[in-house]
Structures are given as structure tokens and as C-alpha cells.
Here is the input.
Amino acid sequence: MNSVPELNLKHLHALVAVHTHGGISAAAPHINLSQPALTQAVARLERQLDTALFDRQPGGMAATEATTLLVPRIARALGYLAQGVRLARRAARLPALPAIERRLTLSQLRALTAVDTAGSYTLAAARAGLSQPAMHRAVRELEAVIEVPLLQRRGKTLQPTPAANRLLRQVRLALAELNAGLDELHALRDQHGGRLAIGVMPLARAILLPQALARFARAWPGATVNVVEGPFSEVLADLREGSLDLLVGAMRDLSAVRDVVQEGLFDDDPVIVGRAGHPLAGRKTLTFDHLLRYPWVIPATGAPVRARWERMFRDNGHAPPVLRIECGSLVITRGLLLEDDWLTLMSRDQFLFERRAGLLVELGLAGEALRRRIGLTTRADWHPTRAQQGFVQIFRDVCAERSDDGPTEWPFRYPDTR
Here is the structure.
């Protein structure tokens, strides 16, 4: 989030007011600023952004395209900050203060997020290239403005108070919105520029996402993409706080998380995988006696594939075998399969290269009940930039091409051995 320049939040609010009310003189009474002060605020923003925000005409000020793109982002950012302060004060059992977000500074907000991430003023200051006293002073000034303690020491680390946790999420969303606004401005100069941060889950990263990224890079040569892998709980938290724009991969049950939405794009059927030359390779019919005869490597309890693997056995009247190795790493799992007669469940994409090389083979399908939906997860209030919209459409196209290949055949059946 450090790409946001040192803008003045009061100046941003002034820009919104001038745009909303149609001019300097009309906006001045609404934000308690003189016309000269308001004129200076807009002029300074134009210098900082190196962009004309209004066309000065005899009949008044006409917003440029840059302003039309930027103002909605600023308005949403200010709304997040207002909500964050309200939530923080409510957590501290304090009444709301009107327009208090206008008294905040980006330096204060950056300092709070930096200390929260680093766990100490020393490390936060070193990462930000600031002095420790400056970092400490910025957080203390923020606490004084909103009248709420924000950090508490636990052992050797600083941790946010419950009130700060409520504020921090809204602050990060506000910074993400301002970053998106700056991207919109840059895109006016470079029609193929922009930035995108994607959280990726295991199923999407082997073939699906690389295909989409390659197409996106060709269509948007000036854009940059940051791909982040991690446990689902972590990438979901990053998405909800604005540091990721979207998640791609297998969909989860997020009915309890109301601020995100999911878009299913195609179905994937897990298959049973083993090494080439596995004793079960080439069989047209697999029984559960066969499957129980060999060791399995499956992720630990809590992973979706683990639940599906257990269901595969239980739905057919068998207890899942005891796992000697639990592993969520695809790299390690593929390596283990090559060493001996181990079995696992994978998407076909996840061992495509090993299959082409004749190293791993599909032994059978896990069953229609284990089919999983692949798609996109975004924030419910996400407003993508042009570049982000471009990637989403490309990803949809890649998924649609898979769906157009026709329904999956089911050549393997498990006889009822109960």
C-alpha cells in the first residue's frame, strides 16, 4: 500500500466536494474552507498527481476524465475511514464524532498498519525508512485524534487492541481504494497499464492461472501482476482487507462471510493418481479392495481434498484408511508418488506435465459426488480497474473454453463390495 503518495486527506475531501457541487464557490460552504484555500487544495493535488483535474472555463469548472475516475475512489476511501473510526470508537464505548476522518493523515494510517504488520516500532520504522520516534509519534497522534488506544504490548511484540483491529481493516481497504484510483490515472497515460494482486489456491496454479496470465500479459503489456500463494484462511483475510484483488481456485463454503462473493466458472473432477507402472495402472475397474491395498498421501484434516477423499470411502461403505503421510504440498506429493506405489487425489491439471512425461498416470475417477466448482472470489464491494476487469474477463474466457470441451466421461466404476 506504500504506493499512495503523501496526499492530504483534507485536499482529497475538497476535490470530492468541488466535483459534487460543481465548482469552488459552491463547494466552499459545505466543507468550511475559503475559496482561496479550496483553490489551493485542488491546485496542489494537480501538482502532486501531475494531472489536470478540472478544465477552467468562463462558465465554471468542468471535471476532467481523471477526476471522474478518481473521485468515486476517494469517496469510497473516505467512507471506509469514517466507518473504521466509528467502529473503533464504538468498541471503546465512545460516541461517534462527525467528520473526524478529515482530521486523519495518511502518515498516521501508514504508521499504524506498519507497526501492526511488523509487531514493533523498531522493525516498522526500518522497513518504512523512517526514524522510530517519527513512527511512534504518528501512531500517538492518531490515537489522540480518535481518542482510542490502538496498540498494546504483549511480551516482546506490539499488538492491536480490539478497537484497532476494527479500524485497521477499514484503513487497508481505504488505502487499496486510493491505490486503485492512482492506477486509473496511470491507465489514462498507458491504456495497457495497471496492477493486479491475485491470491491463488492449489488447483488453479498449475495450468489454469498460467494460461490466463499469459493471455493477460499479451493483452495488457504495461500491467503488473502479483501472484500470492498461501493457506486459504490467509489469502481470504488479505482479500477482505484489500491487499489482494481476487482469489482464483476451488470454491469454498463462504456463506458465513458476507463481504465476499463467488463466481463459479467450471467443474473439476478429482482423479486417483499413481506412478506409471503402478500395479493398478491399466485396470478398467477398480474396487475398494484395490484402493485399500496401497498407501495414500493426502493433506491433513481441514483441507477440502481431505474431506472429499474421506467421503469417497464412506459413501461406498468403507472407513478411510489410516494415513501414514499427511501432506498438502503438491511438489512433495508428486515426488512421493514417483518413489513407490502411493496413491493420491488430484486434478488432472495438477500432474499434467508428469502425465505428458509418462511419469504419473490417472488410475480412475473419484466419483461425481467429489466434483468441485472452480471460480473467482472477490469482495462484495470491489470496484475493479480496467486492467482488473480485463483479467477477470480473460479468466472467464479460459474457463469457458474448458467447459466447451464437453462433459467429462466416467469410464471407471467402483463395484459395490459391501
